[in-house]
Amino acid sequence: MKKQYNIEIDCAVCANKVQEAIKKIDGVTFCVVNYILQKMTIEIDDSKDFNLVLKQAIKLAKSIESDFEIEL
Amino acid sequence: MTKKQKKRLKTIIICGCSFLFLIIFNALLKLDAKRFPNGISSIIGGKFGFILPLFLYLTVYVFVGKNVLKKCFFNLIRGQIFDENFLMVIAGLGAFTLGIINGLYGGGGEGFDEACAVILFFELGEFLQNYAVSKSRKSITSLISLRPDYARRLTNGNEEIVDPSVIKVGDIIVVNSGEKIPLDAIVIKGTSQVDEKSLTGESLPKDAYENSAVLSGSINLTSTLTLKVTKNFESSTVSKILELVETATDKKSKTERFITKFSRLYTPIVVILAIILAVVPSIITGNYLTYIYRALNFLVVSCPCALVISVPLCYFASLGTASKNGVLIKGSNYLDVLNDVNTFVFDKTGTLTKGNFKVTKIYPENKKQELLRLAYICEKNFNHPISKSILNECDFDLDVSTYTVKTVLGQGNVAKSESDTILVGNALLLKNNGVSAPFIEEDGTVIYVAKNSEFKGYLVIKDEIKESSFASVKQLNDCGFKTVMLTGDNERVAKSVSNELNLSEYKHGLLPHQKVTELEKIITNKSGSVCYVGDGLNDAPVLMRADLGVAMGGIGSDASLEACDIVLINDNLTSLIKAKKIAKTNSKTVKQNVAFILLVKALILTLSAFGLTNMWLAIFGDVGVSLLAILNSLRLHKND
Fold first, then answer.
1. Best mutation target, B81, B127, B250, to test chain A (most A CBs within 10 A)
2. Complex ipTM
3. b/e map of B264-290 (b: 16 or more CB within 10 Å)?
4. pTM score, whole prediction
5. Which residue of B has its CA nearest to A31?
6. Block mean pLDDT (10 aa), chain B, length 640
7. Strands B566-568 and B548-551
8. Contact check, Cβ <8 Å, B141/A36
9. B263–A10: do the CB atoms touch at under 8 Å?
C-alpha cells in the first residue's frame, strides 16, 4: 500500500538522510521524502502490518531529525 | 508565516537587538579609554573582568540558539556527529573558549561577540532559508492549486453544496459564472464560455454548449451551466494533473542525485580538514590558539545546505512554470533530457495535423451514394479518424448487422456478409485480396472501395495542418534542431506536409512497429537526445523508446499518460517550445548556483586556512551564499 503524508522537516540534508534510512527498513518498498513539498510518500509491502512499519519509519525519522513531524 | 516561524523571528529580533546593544555599549565604553579600556570587561575590571561580557553574550547565545542546542544534544546521543547543529555549537563554544583563554591571559575578553554572532546569524540564515522555501512552495503550488473546494449538487431540484469527492458519475451539478468547474462533465443545459487558462495556459476562452464536454479546474465565465458528471473527483482532469505534478519532484535528476551524494561527503571532509588544520600546524608552530580559531572557521562553512536546497528548488520552480504553460513534466530528470534534445520526431496525424480528416473527393461522382454506402458498412463502429470522416460524409443510417468487419492493420477494413465481400482501404488491401485496381495518385489519402472483387471507385481524404505547427517547426528549425516526421500515410501526403512545414526529414508508409525501428535508427545516428511527439493512440511503444516521449492532446487517454514523459494538455506544439526554453534556463541556473556556492565556500576555506578572514565573514559568506542561491532559483518561477 502506498500513502502520502504531509510532514514537517527543517533541514534539507536531513530529509535525504531520513529517506535513505527509511528505505532500508524491512517491508518498505518505496520511500521519497520531499523537502520542498514537505511531503513523504511511502509504500509498504502488503504482507506487513502497514501501521507497524510506518511507526518504525517515523521513529527512525525522529532519531535522525528530532524536529520531524508527520500529519497522520 | 506560521506560528512557529513567527516565534522564531521574534526570538531572533529580540536577541539580535540585545546583541547589537552589547556591541554598541562595548564600543561606547571603549571611547573612554582611561576608565574602560576593555569595554564591558572593564566594568568589573581585573583579571576576571571578562566574565561579565562572557555572561552577557552567552545569555544571548543560549536564547537565540536554544533550538540548535537542543537538536545538537538529541542528535548527539543518537550518534550523529556530523550533524550541522553539533558543528555550529562547536564553532560557537569553541570561540567562547578562545575568548576565555584570551581573557585569562589578560587580553580583556575579545571574541565573545564573534562567538555569539555565529549562532545568531546561523539562526537568522536558517530562518530566512526556511521562510523563502516555504513561501516559494506556497506560491508554486498555488499555481497548480486548481483544486476546486466544493460542488453544487442538484438533487430533486434542490441545490446543496458538497465536497467534490462525494459526487458520483451521473450526478447533476450546477456551476455559476465565476465558479470553478469541480469535475469533468458534459453540459446538459446552458450556454457559456469557460476559461481553461489554469489547465492549459490558453487564454482564449472555450465555448460550452449542450453536449459539449468541460474539464474540471476550468472556470465558468459567462452564465450558469447545468452539468452531468462524467468522471469522479479522483479521475477528473484536475486531480490527475495535481497528482502528476506533485510526484514529479519526487523523481530526481542526475544533478540532484549527485548533489545528494556530494553533500554526504562534504561535511565529513570539511570536519576532517578542520581537525588537521587545528592539530598539525599547532604542533609545528605551537600557535595552537590561532589554528584552532581557523579550524573553527572551517566548521562554519561545513553545511552543504545551500546546494541541497537551491538545486532542487530550481527544478521545482521550473516544473511549476511549465505546468502553468500547459506542459506537465513527469520528473525533474526529464527537464534535463529536454534540454539535451536536438532532434524532434513527430507523428503526423493529430500531432502536426488536426486529425480531422475530410472527404474532399469521391470518384466516380455519379456513383457517390453507392460508394458511400459501401464505405459506411466497413467503417461504422470504428473510431479511426478516417472512419469518422467517412461516416461524417454519410447522411444516412444503414443496418450493418449482417456484416462482420475486420481490420487489416495498415491496409483497411474488410466487411463480409453471406453474399458479399466489401473492401475499403488502400491499394495494398485490394492487391492482397486479388482485386485489380488502377493506381490512383491524388493530393490526399486515397481510399479504394471494392465489392466482390470488383473495384468500384475511391474517396480522397485530406487532413489539415494545425496553424500552430508552422510556428513551432519554424522555431525548432531556426534553433538548428532536426525536425522529422514519421507517418503511416503515403508518400505524396507525407511529402506535401513535409514541404509545407519545412521539415528536415520525413518517413512515410510506416506501420506502428516500423515507427519504432525508424526511431531507433534516428537515435543511433544522432548525437544528443531524441524527442518523439505523438498523440498516444498507438504511439505507446514509440513514446517509450524515445529518449523523451511527449504525448499531445490532453489527459484523455490513459495509455498516453503511462507511456510518455511529458504531457501537453492543449493541442499546441508551441508550448513544447516554451518548455524547451524553460529547460535551458533551468540548466543554466543550476550551473550558476553550483559554481557560485562551491567557489565561495572554497574561497572561505582557503582564506580561513591562511588566517585572512574571521568568523564574521565566514558566517556571512555561508548564510548569504545560501540565500542568494535560493533567490536565484526562485527567479525560475515566473508569475505571469
1. B250
2. 0.88
3. bebbeebbeebeebbeebbeeeeeeee
4. 0.80
5. B250
6. 86 91 86 78 76 86 86 79 80 85 74 84 86 79 70 88 88 90 90 80 78 87 90 81 78 89 88 88 84 86 88 90 86 93 89 82 88 89 82 85 87 89 89 87 85 90 86 91 88 87 90 87 88 81 90 65 83 88 94 94 89 82 87 78
7. parallel
8. no
9. no
